[in-house]
Amino acid sequence: MGSDRVIEVIGEDVEDAIAKGLAELGVGPNEVIVEVLEEPSRGMFGLKARPARVRLQLMAARTPPPPTPPEPVAVEPIITQDAPSDEDAEVGKVVLEEILEKLEFRAEVTIRRSPDEHDEDDEDMSSPWVLDVTGSSDLNALIGRRGETLASLQYITRLITSRELQRRANIVVDVDGYKARRMTKLHELAMRMADQAISENRIVSLEPMPPYERRIIHLALRGREDVETASVGEGEMRKVTIVPK
């Protein structure tokens, strides 16, 4: 096997590194063997001290099976919120419930499909399943300062689910509607800072944000013709800049 069929990639986390490797190889997740060489030095409630590093090995091309005669196509039932059938959601829900149980949180996990809940670098992913955590107990501890604990909870849930599925899990975790409320505030912030950039004719830099929040800013201003956005910086210090056109 040639060296061009094996690459090593680093990223902010394991999922990010795998996504970058797949993009570099130009293949899908089912066409590679992934080996995690080094996970980011990140505790559940801490910050990363080093990036993740993975090795992707391109599997040998397979001979496609001979075509089969056409058969009548059955109409698939519509997937509703009450009857999720996606394996990512079902496995992710079980994983998240076990994590919450170990953390001694009395909470309920429900599943919904959302077209808007993406990380910044997930342009190529289909709409993910959202695991909503609700309950009678105080869930603020699961959110943390500026959503940092929630980001860690989502990272752990995705990582375990991905290992169970042996592929990248397409799920997002939200707690007590925090991300929906945060999305509204970030949208308002994006518009206000864009107006400031135009009125003062200068580049405006926002505070460092996680990938999910940076994407909200980008999407909020994508339809404006008077400004453009870009992400600058590395790791935890990566932030959005708003540039007047």
CATH architecture title of the largest domain: 2-Layer Sandwich
Span between termini: 48 Å
> Uncertain segments of ≥5 residues (pLDDT<50)?
43-48, 69-85, 120-125
CATH class descriptor name of the largest domain? Alpha Beta
Helical residue percent band: 25-40%
> Within the CATH hierarchy, at the fold level, what is the topology of the largest domain?
GMP Synthetase, Chain A, domain 3
Q: Tell me the overall shape.
A: globular
Please trace the helix and strand order, writing H or E for each element: EHEEHEEHHEHEHEE
Quickly give the structural class: alpha+beta
What's the assembly state of these chains?
A: single chain
Beta-strand share of residues? 15-25%
| Overall pLDDT confidence | 79
**Biggest sheet character:** 3 strands, antiparallel
Radius of gyration: 20 Å
**Structure summary, number of beta strands:** 9
- Order of strands in the sheet with the most strands? 1-3-2
What is this structure, in a nutshell?
The protein has helices spanning 14-25, 87-102, 140-143, 148-165, 178-200, 211-221; strands at residues 6-11, 32-38, 52-58, 108-113, 129-134, 171-175, 204-205, 227-232, 239-244.
